[in-house]
Design a protein that fits this description.
This protein has about 575 residues and is an alpha+beta fold. The chain is built from 18 helices and 19 strands.
Length: about 575
């Protein structure tokens, strides 16, 4: 069992980011579904996930820079990277508010991570967000953040007691949000942004205690929503499902010296566009920008500092909002979303899109070339470097099609791929995610792809082909460990079938033969072998002969995968 942290040091913050990202990945779709305030555009869970993903990536970059050093990175560097990553990757109102909360916490945690510093960090974060709102509305993430800070207040020197108190206070406040905000009460749901904050705090509980946060009972339609699944809340309106979600109410903190931000008291019709961009500008220029944008629209959030700002506003004149940024400094990463169509625009004129494309994640250059020849757009997952959702979204954009089938080819990428698909849908692309768990399943799906048939029919055929393909891989054990096949030693060859260790062997050829025999015992018509960069061609010849001799009427196809994590990938259809 890993040692539990006594304070929020660099390693604990890294763990917190990782657990929060994983938890938001699990909860993303449900958070999207319950969002009704102030605009029902169904992306709050996705926005929170993408924001934390950017924060986690920034933290990992700090650790990567210290891999060759003798010491771990300083806690101050890690928490500042977390805040900066959240700032530059913030999406929507909800993500921007979360970025502001993390920024407020980082300012305190950089000086220490014990119980007293955490209490102060929670208070500073909640106060900064509330001061930024001219007319704070109870029942939003602001309420949940304040409750977390208030519940954690006191003199208890135990860090675990503080995080539990903050989490419990946030859960209780979240359950009360439908009573405080009319639009939530009518829909029978809790505040989506507040729920996301509870998920993040639940990850903090798991970080410092080693145990998942407490769960509550589920509720049915028409009942009072209560926390479930480590802080999730399920509550459906009487007579139907909740409307699709929207960014959370309230606004993030404004720069020092700026006035408060307006926060509409109820959902409903509002400005037509959401405008978001990063801005390089000085404090005085941003103050003037704030005044101008406040006159143009609502839901204005401007957070940041030290010359870099994140700007978010809802307006009817998107061009004027961008022009205001140009006058203030240098805006970039400009994104405009029309609420009526929920489609994003990146201010570039492009050629007419194709009708359909396939985007596939592959573990090496060899398979990338194979999939490209088959007409797919590829994303290479280097060993130890899984693609982020932004890379998948970029690949979907590069595919430039109205319809896209996304093949992640890795079970660990399911949340990342789902977030990318949701983001692409907001840009007007119809995306279907086929949950392929291995590259050989992706190859099988791509083999039956027919762009001329109906989209749904094509997706069903590709899903069926992937599902009918069992997958295996060989790996080299790095240390002694317990497995489902027994105890392995460092250097042993492991044969994993459908993700579980099934064979422990001494060399690659013998282990591969055993794996093939076990897989083909259940039947099969085609074996796919994908060889790693350093694996000799003779292995393929040996395995082909083994299949011919022991399994009549089974064909074998061999591909070179290039530099990939596993020396051998196996598929059986």
């Amino acid at each position: 069992m890993p040692q539990l942290p006594d304070d929020l040091d660099a390693v604990a913050v890294r763990t917190w980011c990782s657990l929060a990202l994983e938890a938001l990945g699990r909860e993303r779709a449900e958070i999207d579904a319950i969002n009704v305030y102030p605009i029902a555009d169904g992306d709050t869970g996705t926005n929170l996930y993408l924001t934390v993903e950017s924060a986690a990536a920034a933290v990992e970059a700090v650790f990567a820079a210290h891999e060759t050093g003798a010491t771990a990175p300083a806690t101050a560097d890690v928490v500042r990277a977390m805040a900066h990553g959240a700032l530059i990757g913030a999406r929507g109102n909800s993500g921007t508010i979360l970025a502001q909360l993390l920024r407020g916490m980082a300012g305190v945690l950089a000086d220490g991570g014990d119980a007293a510093h955490l209490r102060l960090a929670l208070t500073r974060a909640a106060d900064a967000a509330r001061r930024a709102v001219a007319h704070p509305v109870e029942g939003t993430v602001l309420t949940v953040a304040a409750a977390a800070a208030e519940s954690a207040a006191g003199e208890d020197p135990d860090l675990r007691a503080v995080v539990h108190a903050a989490y419990d206070g946030a859960r209780a406040a979240l359950a009360r949000t439908p009573e405080q905000l009319a639009v939530l009460g009518r829909a029978g749901v809790v505040d989506a942004g507040g729920r996301g904050l509870v998920v993040v705090l639940g990850a903090l509980v798991e970080t410092v205690t080693g145990q998942a946060a407490a769960r509550g009972p589920r509720t049915g339609p028409g009942r009072t929503p209560v926390p479930v699944d480590g802080g999730s809340v399920v509550g459906l309106p009487v007579g139907g499902a909740p409307a699709d979600g929207a960014p959370v109410g309230g606004a993030g903190g404004a720069p020092p010296g700026e006035g408060p931000l307006d926060c509409p008291e109820d959902g409903g019709a509002g400005p037509a566009f959401e405008v978001i961009y990063l801005l390089e500008a000085g404090d005085e220029q941003v103050a003037r920008l704030r005044t101008r944008l406040d006159a143009l629209g609502d839901s204005l959030v401007v957070v940041g500092g030290d010359g870099l700002w994140h700007v978010h506003v809802h307006v009817d004149d998107a061009g004027a909002a961008v022009e205001a940024g140009v006058e203030a400094g240098r805006p970039y990463r400009i994104r405009i979303t029309h609420f009526a169509t929920e489609s994003g625009h990146d201010l570039r004129v492009q050629a007419e899109p194709a009708q359909r494309a396939v985007v596939v994640v592959v573990p090496g250059d060899g398979l990338a070339g194979l999939c490209t020849e088959a007409g797919a757009t590829t994303v290479i997952a280097r060993p130890g470097e899984p693609p982020a959702s932004g890379e998948l979204v970029d690949a979907i954009r590069r595919a430039h099609a109205r319809e896209v089938v996304l093949l992640p080819n890795d079970a660990a990428l399911r949340h990342t791929a789902a977030a990318a698909a949701e983001q692409a849908r907001t840009e007007g692309v119809r995306v279907a995610l086929v949950p392929t768990r291995a590259a050989v399943q992706g190859i099988a799906a791509l083999a039956v792809h027919e762009p001329d048939r109906g989209f749904d029919e094509d997706v069903v055929a590709m899903t069926a082909a992937a599902g009918a393909t069992r997958y295996a891989e060989l790996a080299i054990a790095e240390r002694q460990s317990w497995t489902m096949a027994g105890i392995c030693q460092a250097g042993d060859i492991l044969g994993l079938i459908d993700g579980d260790v099934a064979v422990i062997g001494a060399d690659v050829p013998a282990t591969a033969r055993t794996v093939l025999d076990r897989m083909l015992a259940a039947g099969g018509e085609l074996v796919t072998l994908v060889l790693g960069e350093d694996v000799p061609d003779s292995l393929a010849a040996t395995l082909e002969e083994h299949v011919r001799e022991g399994h009549l009427a089974v064909d074998t196809v061999v591909y070179r995968g290039g530099r990939q994590r596993a020396p051998l990938l196996i598929g059986v259809e």
